[in-house]
Every structure is written in structure tokens, then in C-alpha cells.
């Protein structure tokens, strides 16, 4: 009986994780980011301390997200009416997730910055002399392809909705161009963060879904990479 209860406990815990993954979009984002960071860590010589910090940071984000989901479910069970204390409880739980997420970004930046900076400098030195006007040509081509694809799918307008996200495509095209031209890794990182915020805002505003945004980002990056590499 004790073994059976122990197995049931594990099953209940796993069910909780699966429920959070199925119902919480932020949890899926956290898991995807965690997998990406862990895969990236395989290509660098991280110390045992750095690996431990990564695991702790990832666990902290996931745990806070699950606690946030648990608190929301408990409040919704108790009442379906608006109450100021219920609002405070949900906001505080969400704030805990936000702090853990910012901490994760900071930890990843500190651990990977110097290592990525070295790799980036090697790549950038090979294409530093690429003409600046290539950037504008890339943007024009990205815009034309986005408009063509929207016309093909027959949904949305050139500036709103449809497949793919034009704003996201242009944003990530600019990030890619900045990566080729800029000498400062910090500038590249900040540009990438701005592009991600643009993509996220298109989803939050309801103009695009995740697939349209991702396709826009891939389109912008691939076309700009192709043009820069071809010209070079």
C-alpha cells in the first residue's frame, strides 16, 4: 500500500505538470526557453557552478509558474466574483513569476555573454565590410515577400493580420542586419530584445497568432541572411 501511495503521489505531481503545460501559455514559453538554453549550454564549456545555477534558475521559473497557476485555480474555486483580495493574490503570484523570469534572463546573460561575444566577433569580422545599402535592399525584399504572401493567403492587410506577421519579419530582418554590421554585442542583444517585444505585442494585440509571428521572424532572418551572405 505504501508503494502504491508513493506511485500515486508521483502520478498526481506529473498530472499537475501536464495540466500546467496544457493550459498555461507562459509555462510552454518557459519550457521552450529552458530547452533552448540547455541545448546552447552543450556548445560551451560551462563550469559545474554555472550548470548548477542554470538548473536552479530554470527550476525557479517553472516552480513559480506552477504556484501561480495553483493560486489562480484555488481562487477561482472559492469565488467567481470580483474581490480586491483575490486580485491582490493573483497579481502577487504573477509578480513572483515575473521576478523569476527577469532573474533567469539576467543569469543567462551573465553566463553566456562573454562566450557568445567571442563567437559573434569571429563571425562579424568576416562580414564587417558588407555595404550598408544591402540592409535597405534586404528590408525592401522582406516587405515585398510579406505583401505577396498575404495576398496569396488572402487574409489580413499589409499592416495588420494575416500570414506572416510583417512587423515581426521587418523587426527580425533589422536584427539580422544589425548583427552583421554592428561591432557591439550588447547592441545586437538589445535589438533582439526589441524584436521579441514587437513580436509579443502583435500576439497580445490579437493581430497575429504564434505561428504567424514565428513565420515572420523566420522569414525576416532567412532572407536577410541569404542576401548578406550572397553579396559577401
From TrEMBL:
Keywords: ATP-binding, Cell membrane, Kinase, Lipid biosynthesis, Lipid metabolism, Magnesium, Membrane, Metal-binding, Nucleotide-binding, Phospholipid biosynthesis, Phospholipid metabolism, Transferase, Transmembrane, Transmembrane helix
GO biological process, one term: phospholipid biosynthetic process
Cited Gene3D superfamilies: 1.10.287.3610, Phosphatidic acid phosphatase type 2/haloperoxidase
Annotated localization: Cell membrane
One GO location term (cellular component): plasma membrane
Cofactor note text: Mn(2+), Zn(2+), Cd(2+) and Co(2+) support activity to lesser extents.
EC id: 2.7.1.107
Active-site residues annotated for this sequence: 65 (proton acceptor)
Single GO term (MF): ATP binding
Entry's transmembrane regions: 29-46, 52-71, 92-112, 132-153, 174-198, 210-228
Main location: membrane
Membrane topology category: Multi-pass membrane protein
Positions annotated to bind a divalent metal cation: 72
InterPro entries named in the record: DAGK, DAGK_sf, PAP2/HPO, PAP2/HPO_sf
UniProt binding sites for substrate: 65
Pfam families: DAGK_prokar (PF01219), PAP2 (PF01569)
Residue ranges constituting the Phosphatidic acid phosphatase type 2/haloperoxidase domain according to the UniProt record: 130-228
Co-factor(s): Mg(2+)
Residue sites binding ATP per the record: 12, 72
Record family assignment: Belongs to the bacterial diacylglycerol kinase family.
Name under which the protein is recorded: Diacylglycerol kinase (ATP)
